[in-house]
């Protein structure tokens, strides 16, 4: 029996008509893109259920947690440490930023040549269609680029509970010191609003939960090395997307159950595509729900995606936080800073580690080509893509750079370029 969530959405202040329209479009896209796939693993049924309740049951869980006195913390970036949020018994959720919604309203406050991810964050707020955003006790931004840095000044007028973490721009000791100071301030903010003190024991528990989640994602990534591919790139991307807002314990168990099934499929040489299917590594900007355009085009063009060098992918989950036998809070905080400082976001300059990781992933996943995905007007990744393309091509790695946004207007053009690229790598 279906549950009527409209009173809950109304209580959160959503525009019900606009929200209905968004869910209608999202539901049809999910049906056409994900449920139309054949020979999907049974384990994906859990993630299908999560998406069917994306604005329903999970939102109710967040409100139930708030009723118990827990704080819901929303964020837009992998640099916001979930471990600290869990250390005050908080709930960490990613925020909607993957669809072209209310851009006309957003462009009244932002330049038109602002990247789609930033405009989407504004559109979901101005359009009153994101229950995650409205359920948050604190919304955390981060200065990962100049666009976000300045946009948060305007978003602060729209969100009463916005907190911004500053980030270093260089991988230096002074940069690491800045990140540590910012995380210490963020920890103090969480303690203040939750009334709970972050102890070494609490932080160790938070680190353990998040490490286990990342270990499950590492296991999934490793299984994608197999040929034929045991899971589609679309489904693997969906798992990574859901990791940002699902309950971490339940999510980890569900990913490991999926991996158990994939191991069985690999032993039986059962894949979602024939063994000779061209294998693609996608690199570049993050893809938040429901940004599925490029993966859908690639995987309906006779190829399979076997890895994502992205914040919504292996860049975001690559490293674990060392906990070892440390019993001192300051040492655990140092370990936390060390882990996040390794994230090779394009905001850092210089950024050689990212190129090295693309090369490593290309080899590990037995890929045959790299598609570098840029959101238009995302200067860090667009500028970095030039050097990435040149150096990968010089190393004999076929590379295609795609610049796009959240609209469907260029889907045909992208498909033509992707199909030509696949023909190239097939020789």
From TrEMBL:
Pfam families: HGD-D
Name of the protein in its database record: Benzoyl-CoA reductase/2-hydroxyglutaryl-CoA dehydratase subunit, BcrC/BadD/HgdB
InterPro entries for this protein: FldB/FldC_alpha/beta, YjiM-like
Annotated family: Belongs to the FldB/FldC dehydratase alpha/beta subunit family.
Protein source organism: Candidatus Moduliflexus flocculans
NCBIfam families per record: double_cubane (NF040772)
């Amino acid at each position: 029996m279906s549950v009527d969530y409209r009173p809950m959405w109304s209580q959160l202040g959503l525009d019900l008509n606009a929200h209905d329209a968004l869910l209608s479009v999202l539901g049809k896209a999910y049906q056409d893109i994900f449920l139309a796939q054949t020979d999907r693993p049974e384990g994906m049924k859990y993630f299908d259920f999560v998406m069917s309740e994306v604005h329903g049951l999970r939102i109710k869980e967040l409100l139930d947690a708030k009723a118990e006195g827990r704080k819901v913390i929303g964020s837009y970036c992998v640099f916001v440490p979930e471990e600290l949020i869990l250390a005050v018994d908080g709930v960490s959720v990613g925020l909607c930023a993957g669809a072209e919604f209310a851009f006309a309203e957003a462009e009244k406050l932002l330049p038109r040549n602002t990247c789609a991810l930033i405009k989407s964050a504004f559109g979901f707020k101005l359009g009153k269609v994101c229950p995650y955003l409205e359920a948050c006790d604190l919304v955390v931004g981060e200065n990962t680029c100049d666009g976000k840095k300045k946009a948060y000044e305007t978003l602060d007028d729209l969100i009463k509970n916005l907190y911004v973490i500053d980030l270093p721009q260089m991988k230096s000791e002074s940069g690491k010191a800045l990140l540590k100071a910012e995380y210490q301030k963020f920890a103090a903010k969480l303690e203040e609003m939750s009334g709970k003190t972050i102890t070494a024991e609490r932080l160790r528990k938070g680190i353990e939960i998040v490490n286990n989640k990342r270990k499950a994602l590492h296991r999934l990534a490793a299984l994608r090395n197999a040929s034929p591919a045991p899971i589609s790139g679309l489904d693997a991307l969906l798992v990574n997307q859901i990791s940002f807002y699902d309950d971490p314990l339940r999510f980890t168990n569900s990913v490991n159950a999926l991996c158990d099934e994939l191991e069985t499929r690999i032993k039986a040489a059962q894949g979602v595509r024939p063994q000779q299917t061209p294998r693609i590594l996608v690199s570049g900007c993050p893809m938040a729900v429901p940004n599925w355009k490029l993966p859908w085009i690639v995987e309906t063009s006779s190829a399979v995606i076997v890895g994502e060098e992205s914040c919504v992918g292996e860049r975001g989950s690559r490293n674990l936080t060392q906990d070892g036998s440390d019993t001192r809070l300051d040492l655990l905080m140092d370990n936390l800073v060390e882990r996040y400082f390794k994230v090779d976001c394009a905001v850092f300059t210089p950024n050689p580690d990212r190129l090295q990781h693309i090369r490593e992933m290309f080899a590990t996943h037995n890929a045959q080509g790299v598609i570098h995905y840029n959101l238009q007007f995302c200067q860090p990744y667009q500028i970095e893509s030039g050097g990435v393309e040149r150096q990968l091509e010089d190393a004999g790695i076929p590379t295609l750079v795609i610049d796009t946004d959240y609209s469907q207007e260029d889907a045909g053009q992208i498909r033509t370029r992707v199909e030509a690229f696949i023909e190239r790598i097939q020789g």
